[in-house]
Amino acid sequence: MTNVSASFISDLMISMARATASPYQFLIVHRDAIPSISITEGAAELPAQIQGKLVSQLHLRPLDQRIVNMVYSKVMVEPVTHPHIVTISPTACALLGVDGEATLAKEAELAANLMSGNQAIEGSQSTAHLYCGHQFGNFAGQLGDGRAHSMGRVVSPLAGHMDKGGFDASFGPFVELQFKGSGRTPYSRTADGRAVLRSSIREFLCSEYMAALRIPTTRAAILVNSDTQVTRDPLYVGKPIRENASIVSRIAPSFWRVGSFEIFTAGKNGVEGPYAGEIDRCSDMLDFYIKQHFSHIWKKFPHGKPRYIEFFSEVCARNARTVAMWQSVGFVHGVLNTDNISLLGLTLDYGPFGFMDSFNPHYVPNYSDTDERYAYENQPKMIYWGLGKLAKAISGVVPLDELIAKLNQVFWPVYVDHFHSIVMRKWGMVGRDMKKRKAATQQAEKKNASAGTNGVNEDSGKVDSSSLKVPQAKKNSASTSKTAFADADVLDDAIYDNDEKLISRMMQTMEETGADFTNTFRCLSNIVAHEDGPESPESLSSRENVLDYIVSQLDDGREMANTMPYEVEYLKVLSTFPVEHDDVLLALTGKHVDYFKQRMESVARAKRLAAVSPFQKDDEDRAKWAAWLKQYQSYVNDDWKLAEASGATLTEYNTQRVTIMNTTNPKFCLRNYMAQSAFEKAKLGDFTELQTLTKILSRPFDEWEQYESLKYDRHASSLRMCISCSS
Questions:
Q1: Tens digit of each residue's pLDDT (9 = 90 or more) over 362-408
Q2: Which three-class secondary structure string do you get for 68-93?
Q3: Which region ranges are annotated with the description Disordered (predicted)?
């Protein structure tokens, strides 16, 4: 680049603040150096003949870096020794227009070199993204891609085709290809820029499993292993080992996260973002990102402030829906720092994640999260908290109080709506949908069906999201949670209140008895509506079969006691802290007094469970589940009456109900022991189990009878494990 201005050099130095010295070439690309590219370019249907190409035929374009002093550093990928493909995701490869299976069959060696970065993909330009972040509640300042290289982007033939695995059309026609574990960048600090096979297998499997569950996520196309070795201490106990370095090729419309805008955050104690207080630059970045990935907002709002508020609102809504989906399948991210919260609402950066076996609201898969900051029950609050940090980061262009008001207005109502909607599908409550469709047809000229995703609830920021129980939305709010299913003429408040109560009872019963989260929901499809009501012989028989199945998978008392907190003196003391001084306790510990009271209750339960006989627990558990299943059976029959009033036959109702349930409740779940077992074989060179898991998890709702002997769908409490951040 010639004639680089002094100000540009200054900007370069600012952006590289605290980046370690490296032998790599790097620069911040000035917008004048990149030709302007229309946001609509390539959005038209692609010719069939250029779809399904091999990796060697892939042609990338550099990331569009038009914004002044864009936060990307150009840096070379570091090669690895003997790269080789261990597994692929054909559906993720299709996002690039690549036939993954043909690539594996015809050019596996070449593809391994291309997808590891050893050999350049035509048109690629490797860059690393600068961002900041709050980590475990504290602002860490500059972070950035320490081991990931964005190689470029390509027009996706599946853009907008969400039914085929494509991303939302509003994100734009492009997808970005990124290599994770591909070597050092200016943001690596003292790390080696590598990712080991152990963590790469987990990221690959979970990315594709989440996509199959229809949960917004980044994708993983190809996993490449190598003979390059790195040193890791998996449990941080002073026992380092040598592990193979691997590269995951990740795909997303954008990998920007909340931390991408925290470069403008004015921090404390001398820690701040490299562009703290630079309002004009913040406006430029917002305009750039909105035009790229929220073009509908760009077109609708021609001026800055309304545009930025609408963008922030949609980021809040998308993340609220995503975390509701996490809660519905028992997924716990593990590290919900702000640098891991996607601006597009995608599940981003799979580290020490986990899926619950037995339901436990305190479940933490992260070995390092001893304070349970990112426990299952806290995830909605942590996303809400992280979005508050986004508000602070861009408060130079929109007043902070307006952004926080929008956050409160949007986040909790959307979360409540979406979670409620998902649970009703998991329960197979299709009669309401039938009645809703009939009412909508009759009233189409009078009113439009409400989506229920932008309702106002002034008190929603106070909603208790600390458990799976659906938070209560004000009935007189502009948009109540019932709109996820139907308008006020179709589903009244009493029905919605009963939903909440039955959901709460189910979760309480699951927690008290140690029931498997995934399998319990799945087996409910065996309960169907009957003409003769919930006490007919057929109803009683199906209920008894489901009861036997659930009870057969419950934890015993000692297993449950081992997952609960031990009695320690500080819990006793803090649980008796005066309620009127709760704000002091919150400032000291980050938790309210109710938290410590609940933990002491758990201690008492653990003591009792450890002492109770297996026979006594079995009798008590059967009684609890029998009572809940009886209520649920009545619920199913009440829902059938709604369907009948809409003109459906009993056979039609039951068929549709079972279909919806079995395409909402997965048969298979990615349990940590499964990924670990695949890794143990893979590190010995046997990738067959990994490839089998990849196949099963890509279609987790199928029965897969041929793999029944592997018992992947079984509860296995003795094999539970925590995961560290080591990767």
A1: 899 887 877 888 999 999 999 999 999 999 999 999 999 999 999 99
A2: CCCCEEECCCCCCCCCEEEEECHHHH
A3: 438-481
